[in-house]
Amino acid sequence: MTVPFQSSSVYSGVQGHVSYTAFESTGASACEDWLRSAVAERVYDKAIDDDFAGDVEVLATDGFETAGLQEYLDEPTQAVSYWDIGESIASLYLMERQGASHLCNPRRDLRSEQGSLPGADIVGYQVLPGGAVVFLFGEVKASGEAGSPPSVMASSGSGMVVQLTRLATKVAARRQLLRYLKARSDTTGARPLWEAAMKSLGEKKYALTGVLVRDSSPEVKDVEKAARDLQARVPKGQQLPLFVLHVGIKVDNWSLHCQPR
Amino acid sequence: MTSVMSKSPSTYPSVEQAYAQAMRKRVLAALGAPGADAPLDEYATLLAELVTWDALGNSVADATKYKQAARAAFTLLRDAGPEGADRANEVAWWLRTSCLAVIADLPQEAKKLLEAAELSVKGEPGAQWLDFTRETVWTSWLGLVRQRSLSDVESAQGAVERLRTLQRTHEAVFLKRFEDQRAARDVALELMALYFLGTAAEKLSQYLIKGTADGGADIGAQLDMYFDRIMHALDRVLGGADLDIALLLRPAAQNLIDSSLRAATRGANSLTRKFAEVLIERDVRPLFQLLPPQRMALREQGLIASAHRSVVVNFPTSSGKTLLAQFSVLQALNDLGQERGWVAYVAPTRALVNQVTKRLRGDFESLGKRVERLSPALEFDTGELSALAPVDRDVDGPPVDVLICTPEKLDLLMRREDLCKQLGRLALVVVDEAHGIGGKSDRAIKLELLLSMINREHEGARFLLLTPFIKNAKRVAEWLDQKNSRDYSIGADWVPNDRIVGILSPPEKPPKSRGVKPDHVLFEPKVTPKHTLHIDDVLKLEGVAPELGFTYAKLHASLSNLSTAASQVLSRRGPTVLLCRTVKQTWNCAADLTQAAWPELDGAEDRATIARFASYELGASAPLANLLEHGVGVHHAGLPEELAQSIEWLFENRRLHALCATTTLAQGVNFPIANLVLSSIYPATRDGQAMSYSDFWNIAGRVGRVDQDFVGVVALASTDIDTKQKCEHFLQRSMTDLVSNLVDMVGELGSLADDHGLEKLVWKKEWSNFSQFIAHTLRQVGVERFADQVELILRGTFGYQTLREQNSPLARELLVKTRQYANKIASDMGAVALVDSTGFSFESVRSALFELGQVGNLDDMLDPKRLFSGKSNALREVMGVLLNIPEVRKELVEDGGGGSGSRIAEMLSDWVHGMSVESLADRYFKNTSDDEDNVTQCVKKFRRLSMTSAWGLSSVLAMRFGKQIEAMDPFSRQAVTNIPSMVLYGVSTPGQIALRAAGVPRNAALAMATDSDAPATPYAVRKKLKEGGGKVWTAALGQQRGADYFRVWQILESE
């Protein structure tokens, strides 16, 4: 199913090497259908092998206590939150409209609570118009706030500006993500993309993006300031497109449509 | 030739560039030059690491590819340092970086990186159970990589056991703190992965120590199972801190297993396995892992159980050839089974013989294998005879298993049928520095013919030739056995250390430089053996001490000053050898170096001991004691052997800042040095010829420190364009084929008149050696069969094989002349027999016999007391005769102060009666040289004179009194047989001889054994000295002197 967003933007702007573009949905019903199908499929995508019974048994024979661990390993996966759904919305959009490919599924893979994986919601590849492939890193924020800009854009700890700045300026952050992507790529058939993106990285080329998923009406103030701030913080040679996706359904209702299939 | 590592580390230009940049920074930092703080290309570092993963994960990638990638990644990550300053980041960086080094087959680099790492767990288990578990597991693995001691390798076992205990208290509490179920589950998964990693470390630890884990030797399969489970768990967590390290640990663990001593000796004979245990369990420098070249030869290419008769190991310096030889020796001994037999280990110099003896004795003692060395003197004293043909086990010791000696001594031994019979089957001949076969000296042909002779006459003997620097190793291996041979070669540029070779020059004189002292010298890097250090600039070596007093003019005027200044600067970063042209220069440079202000240096007590020892041996006024106290040493042929060895020990154990040495050091050094400065590439001993390729790399190859993160520096001094160009040319030389000296020698046949034979050439030492080979073979084969066999005999030599391929007419001519020569000498088989017992040519034997027949009464030769009384005419006459024998003439003339038998007889008598070096110098060497002081001259000359005279006297005894001696009573026979040893060791009683043979310095031996009748063998003496401790020494020598000599003896004798 194609993503339910208009092909032409509702507003756009450029701040030096930082651009922003906003898209409205093609309608609430199309969005609901989409949440029920493609988005749900991605959000509830489960790993093939989640059975650790054999491993726990071996651990026990090695002299470790296993009862405590077993309790947590058997724990059912916690319910999804609206930001999980927002991340999937952004990923599906980037893959269909912006040439992104093999984006890792953050809902399935990434740890957010422990912070040992640096905050990056988008990790994968992007095929550029000329055919070149680059690594793609990005941040996704979902917000149901009435005010503009939403606080997720500018908050000092985990706001989009802070996180994108970190991704753009700290190689160590990208290193961690690439270690993670590498492990994924070998098992998901993305090896040719990996090799091509490595060549680009050899020329210090990679892509960075930010996506804000909104339930409100389009409002340029949502991203204008963030774009300005990022222009000052992200190195000049690095293009940074920001996208705002207006779903047209209140965030509280996303999970009503997005259910396990 | 297999290259362990090739030049290009990566196919990514940015990685290559960054790699070169990182190496450049490393060199600049090592030299203290500006530019060492250039920024890191973080992208390239990241890329290099990812390329390694790529290569590791790609099943089609060959090992070379991922090793290259890992090497670049290691270099860049090492340069980058930890991602954060906290303990977790530091430990992760150590592990990630050292794993890459291990994967890259750079285990030494991994060890060096971890040298300063703190491996005890710092965290507390309470609050952060996950962090504590991670630190415990990671540090366990760091110990397994570092392997500095048994506790490094063992620590995993205790640490993981502790983890199991603490888990019961802390894990549940920790997990309960997570409100978010997903997070708790992730942590549980991560903990499970870490527990598995800990268990894997524990099992690897067991395996490296015991050879089994959980009772099984299938450690590879066991770890595979664990890593599958680790990946399964981490794959679901993707906590970045663990995943990539686990990915790297898997191949690193595999490499640790593959390179382990346990894996290499699995399935080997019980003796070899026992040896592995000795190496693993020894207190000092335990060995768990082989170097990559050793692994390649022993494990991958089967040398551990090789049945090849002829093996050549062609490895560069410092790549661990001796260990390979040790395994081969044990295999040969094991293969003997119940049969009585032995192994010969040949080393070219007395220093190397001593070093190998120390090492093999230390390693084989607990295996119940007896290792003995033979003195280089060309005779067998009673002590040696007691070892070679033991009668009483308590006094003579058990039968010898391994004999270590020079080629000349082995040659003499192999011609002694009686001794060979006692020793049993010769199972293996190990030839150290076998490239000596290709030298230009008479020693080269001696060694070649010796091996040919053994090959022909000892059917069961195998050969192991150890050599660096030859191109035709396969051909050399085939020489001794066409069908059953094998060569093990790795690239000449494999080195365990980073090393840079460059040219020194004085700084350009500024205007008005008169009297001004520059603070630096210039260094232009030229050669890096790994082709990885790319430097184009001329660098400043800053920090020349003004106290040295070197002005611009002085640095420009003298290579000696320039190299002294460079040595002083370089010594700040590690012990430096300054290789000097002459003995005099060593003293001068050392004296200059003491002027600089040096930092504190460990080992003051040891330096003081050796300084006192120097003054006991050379006299209180000798300058060496003062130099040593400043941490500066000298090393040359003018020092008594034990003193030279003690100084080597001081240097090796980092108790000296700098050592000023002649090339004598290069012949014996087998320890790493930090920096090497050559004041000239033309040593005085080579008559205007530059150092040989092998001599240079023999010492330059040892530059770099194995145990520390270090770039070794080799610097050649040049003060003008011409010298600089010569140095550049010198460095461009490369390895060549090993060519037999016989090929060159045969060219001389053309100079002979038609009716002249080889007898016209045997006055030359190399032809004398050839003549002796023919005489010996003639005896063995018999006159009747020799004519038929002569071609086969010659074909057994490497030189003749080459000649036949390259110049068959010349080969034919050699054959004809040899046959004619044999026919001629066959007319006097009595003299032919004496060739074997003297080491002289047939012609020399005949001439000596004739001359000895002309002189008067030689009865004193059968009475040592009268012979060395100083009044014996016999000694004068005998020395006079020997002065006409070509084999010994040159040395006797040069060292005996001219052509007088009387003078030599007088010198020998004083020497045997224990006259001190100081007095001998005063009496015989007063003002004999402008270049060297009396004492230096004296020691240098007596070292050779004693050797040559002992040989000469032994030969005379064999020629003139052989039968008479045989008929003597045992006591008198022993007294006469000891005559050459009295001369060799400079002592007069059997007890003193035994002490000297057991390694006791001359002055101590003179004081410790005065009872001339005491029956003693070196074996018994060594045992007694070991058991007696310091008391034996202080009782004879007084408190201080006794304690000093005892310490020196311990240094010299213990490994």
Structure overview:
- The complex is a heterodimer of chains A (261) and B (1055).
- Chain A is an alpha/beta fold.
- Chain A is 43% helix and 18% strand.
- Chain A has eleven helices and seven strands.
- In chain A, strands 1-2-7-6-5-4-3 form a seven-stranded mixed beta sheet, with helices on both faces.
- In chain A, strand 1 (11-15) and strand 2 form a beta hairpin.
- The model of chain A is unreliable at 107-117 (pLDDT under 50).
- Chain B has 1055 residues and is of the alpha/beta class.
- Chain B has an eight-stranded mixed beta sheet, sandwiched between helices. In chain B, strands 3-4-2-5-6-1-7 form a seven-stranded parallel beta sheet, with helices on both faces.
- The longest helix of chain B is centred in the C-terminal third of the chain and has 33 residues, at 934-966.
- At the A-B interface, helix 2, helix 3, helix 8 and helix 9 of A face helix 1, helix 2, helix 7, helix 8 and helix 9 of B.
**Gyration radius of chain A, in Å:** 19 Å
| Helix content estimate of chain A | 40-55%
**N- to C-terminal separation of chain B?**
34 Å
The helix tally of chain B amounts to 50
**Cross-sheet strand order for the largest sheet of chain B:** 10-9-8-15-14-11-13-12
User: Would you tell me the structural class of the helices and strands of chain B?
Assistant: alpha/beta
What sort of overall outline of chain A do the alpha carbons produce when their principal axes are compared? Answer: globular
N-to-C SSE series of chain A?
EEHHHHEHEEHHHHEHEH
Strand content of chain A is 15-25%
Rounded mean pLDDT of chain A is 86
What is the number of beta strands of chain B? Answer: 15
**Protein chains sharing the most extensive interface:** A-B, 48 and 52 residues
